[in-house]
Amino acid sequence: MRALTISATGSLDCVEFRKDIVPPTLPASGHVRVRLRAAPLNHLDLWTIRGLPGVSITPPWVIGADGTGVIADVSADVISLHRGDRVVVNPGLSCRQCEYCRAGEHPLCVRFRVLGEHVPGTFADELVVPATNVRPIPESVSDTDASAFGLAAMTAWRMLVTRAQVKASDEVLIWGIGGGVAQAALLIAKARGARVWVTSGSDAKLERARAMGADELINHTGVDVGREVRARTGKRGVNVIVDSIGAATWEQSLGALGRGGRLVTCGGTSGPALQTDVRRLFWNQWTIMGSTMGSDADFDAIVGELVAGRLSLPVDSAFPLEHGRDALARLQSGAQFGKIVLQIGA
Q1: What's the N-to-C CA distance of the chain in angstroms?
Q2: Separation CA 90–CA 249 (nearest Å)
Q3: Which of 40, 253, 282, 290 has its CA 20 to 30 A from that of 151?
Q4: Rg for the chain (alpha carbons), in Å?
Q5: Contact indicator for 346, 33 with CB cutoff of 8 Å
Q6: Residues 111 and 163 grouped into a single domain
Q7: Is 161 among the domain residues?
Q8: Tally of domains in the chain
Q9: For position 79, which CATH number holds?
Q10: Same domain for 67 and 173?
């Protein structure tokens, strides 16, 4: 089958489109084979290509975390899904047996794995996953919209709804509005009635965010965002901050966070090492939360929003699978606004 692969970690030069990948085997129990139609790019793909600590690959390694397609085959005991069903894929794999899984906290699973990072991924003609990792979608949802949705929307939903519990009285600051998770967070926060601040280094991206509903815009180039937020709010700050940039923005985020505020993060694209004055932490009674992927309940919630037409992410561009390296180069450049999608099957 065709796939976008790496055989070593490093730069985008390691990415190779191949036509000779052996299709995955369908286990006798509990799995489905998905013939993929489209798959989105995520920053996780870039990190996997560069190499992640403690993560090893077996060449040729298929990258890609989520996507959408059609069920091509099912294990004998799978009765809830059928050949021909259109589905969207949840990239997080959990054991379903540990104490966290039994409690419905699947991203905390002691054996949690992610497609494309720990097991071969979605940038291929076919994918085999547990039946619990897919959800049917109707024909009314396009392949592009469905593929652009999964990881970004689920990650944002868990951050905003499950973890930070954003409500209508909140003011929410979201860093880096050009990316899919940030845009999903904007849409989810607005749907819950919150007032939303967004940042970007691009005025054009900020104006596009305004069209999506953003209330306050900050071009963070050469600006201390914490001081800017304090100035605009009479030193009160905001209630919730979504910061997945990390080292470069952490102090500014804390500067913008009001008393009793919640800061939630799902990544550290600028670096993992942070410094926090613990006196400010306890005096202001802040809550700092980590968040990763989503549970079955989070996945069900965002698929419900997608099917109902209440949550659809902007799509920046689409590339055929064989031009996947060009698509990754666009993601790496930071020029995109919205999701970049690979078109795989008809």
Answers
A1: 15
A2: 29
A3: 253
A4: 20
A5: no
A6: no
A7: yes
A8: 2
A9: 3.90.180.10
A10: no
CA 243 to each of CA 31, 113, 126, 250, 288: distance values in angstroms, whole numbers, following the listed order: 36, 23, 34, 8, 11
Sheet of strand 195-200: strand arrangement: 216-219, 195-200, 171-174, 238-242, 257-265, 287-290
Residue 307 included in any domain: no
Q: Are 19 and 2 in contact, with CB atoms under 8 Å apart? A: yes
Residues 138 and 171 both lie in one domain: no
Q: Along the 346 residues of the chain, how does pLDDT read in single tens digits?
A: 999 999 999 999 999 999 999 999 999 999 999 999 999 999 999 999 999 988 999 999 999 999 999 999 999 999 999 999 999 999 999 999 999 999 999 999 999 999 999 999 999 999 999 999 999 999 999 999 999 988 999 999 999 999 999 999 999 999 999 999 999 999 999 999 999 999 999 999 999 999 999 999 999 999 999 999 999 999 999 999 999 999 999 999 999 999 999 999 998 888 888 889 999 999 999 999 999 999 999 999 999 999 999 999 999 999 999 999 999 999 999 999 999 999 999 7
Residues 134 and 160 in one domain: no
pTM for the complete prediction?
0.96
* Cα–Cα dist 117/55, whole Å: 7
Same domain, 8 and 124: yes
